[in-house]
Amino acid sequence: MNNRKVRVRFAPSPTGGLHLGGVRTVLFNYLFAKHHKGEFVLRIEDTDQTRYVAGAEEYINECLRWCGLEPDESPSKGGPYAPYRQSERKALYRQYAEQLVASGHAYYAFDTPEELEDMRVRLKTTENPAPQYNHIVREQMKNSLTLQDSEVQALLAKNTPHVIRIKMPENDTLTFTDMIRGEVSFNTGMVDDKVLLKADGMPTYHLAVVVDDYLMKISHAFRGEEWLPSAPVHILLWKHLGWESEMPEWAHLPLILKPDGNGKLSKRDGDRLGFPVYAMNWTDPRSNEFTKGFRELGFLPEAFVNMLVMLGWNDGTEQEIFSIEELIAKFSMDRVHKAGAKFDFEKAKWFNHQYIHHKDNESLAALLQPMLAEKDVHAGLEFVAQVAGLVKERLYVLSEFWEHSFFFFERPKTYDTGAVVPKWNEAKEKFFTTWLPKLDKLPKQPGAAELEASFKELAAEMQIKVGELQLPFRIMLTGGKFGPPVFDIASTLGVTETQKRIAIGVDTYRKAADTTNA
RNA sequence: GCCGCGUUGGUCAAGGGGUUAAGACGCCUCCCUUUCACGGAGGAAUCACGGGUUCGAUUCCCGUACGUGGUACCA
């Protein structure tokens, strides 16, 4: 049915930060486009001037850039179908709405907001809590279907504020094929006469998507499931505008749901449950409300993308970790789930953990170094890379780096002496004071193996179990009972620093032991 | 209320008329490591419910329940 060039679009309205569901829609569009060697376009749907938020468009651009899902055509990049901002295309839409009026598929409506409100309260009942402007109600409203032609012309001539509404057929069955859901059908009588062109001359989403998808030669239209109920309106528009043969194939993507309760995931849930919902930090310029993002928390974009793609799609095998190239090669719409997926932050972190664990130390260091600088810790890239190599297997998000590695950059401020002091004795103290000078004989940056050999040799000589000594040594170096293998830490710290920490440690243990015994 | 869409373990999910119903996350136990982590080995689900169809249904059909989306001159 469709062998034309694949062209897909992501069409957000610039009203705030991009949340998980939005990014996933981008991702599916992008993967589909690349898989079919087609084009991915970004179109900004800023037809509602009241909801426009400054900076939101830049945020979207930056977000796509960070994720590595950049469009082939966009407002900032341009392209053969520019402009890509609907506000800049305003003049285009009216003619199509008028065309529909002329062909009898739409009509002028002069009802004021007050009159509409009045209709809704008047018709509201328990059975019908939300009355629609539909094929029955329109008979009693002020529009070009009920008014005399002369009246309509007069109203129009006086520039009376009006909208253009679609005239939904009373009782038709409209069926279309959704790439994910198969055949879906609606009775047209159940859907209301949606506004197509607003009183301010801007199109509503319904008109704008259809016109722009047509004009931009979109071949496949993917969007969230929340759009499924208005699909009949759009399909009718394609038909009545005479473009049916060029209508894109549709796919309505499953929603991403709250982890706990009910409903689709919102940024509120993130605040409530303690995880980000937006891709990147976002501050609303009007309210100054701040919403945290995955990027700043320390997610790697490749992990973020991988985690998102698994929410609603899989390739049918056990594989869960995919590079973007693999995803492009393997992605297909017919393996997308129908049902919504509850978001699981633990699993999301696991993906990130996998990616951090397997990322090379140098790349990690490049990401980590600026985070250290924010703490006023300045360390060379090479050293940060070395430390990263030692601790990366225990990081779930990059922002946890410091708590796992601070002792490489500064001396511990506190010591978990409780774990060693009760068993601390003169023999152990003797061991460390004896070992101290021996370290001078080692190279300044000894390997972990050398250190370990020297340590064990002396322990054997003094007939103390190595295991008894390791924990005290670790706490001298790190302050606590955690971290990479002790000798790796000592090796990274170097002889001089290790000696200093041993000296401080012995002192600390002795004092602690004294006060305990006293 | 009405309309649409959906329903396999706590979560993501594979599978699809006949199976011991994969795997992952999380949880628990054990091994490795006298730290933590990594890495191993195990443990926990009869597929929402009720009717059909069938020799046989978790898989097909119909209902019900539940969930979810829509019901704006918002997208």
Give unreliable regions as ranges.
Answer: none
- Provide the CATH architecture of the largest domain: 3-Layer(aba) Sandwich
Gross morphology: elongated
- Helicity level, as a percent range? 40-55%
End-to-end Cα distance, whole Å, is: 89 Å
What's the CATH C level of the largest domain? Alpha Beta
What would you say this structure looks like, in words?
It is elongated and about 110 Å long. It has helices spanning 20-35, 56-67, 90-102, 113-123, 149-157, 205-215, 231-240, 267-273, 294-297, 301-309, 324-330, 345-358, 361-374, 381-391, 401-409, 426-438, 448-461, 466-478, 486-493, 495-517, and strands spanning 7-10, 39-42, 106-109, 163-166, 173-178, 182-187, 195-197, 220-224, 249-253, 256-257, 282-283, 290-291, 341-342. Helix 10 (301-309) crosses helix 12 and helix 13 (361-374) crosses helix 14. It has four domains: 7-84 and 255-346, HUPs (Rossmann fold), CATH 3.40.50; 86-253, Glutamyl-tRNA Synthetase, Domain 3 (Glutamyl-tRNA Synthetase, domain 3, Alpha-Beta Complex); 359-409, Helicase, Ruva Protein, domain 3; 417-517, Arc Repressor Mutant, subunit A (Orthogonal Bundle), CATH 1.10.10. It is mainly alpha-helical and 518 residues long. A three-stranded antiparallel beta sheet has the order 3-4-7. It binds one RNA strand of 75 nucleotides through strand 6, strand 7, strand 13, helix 12 and helix 18.
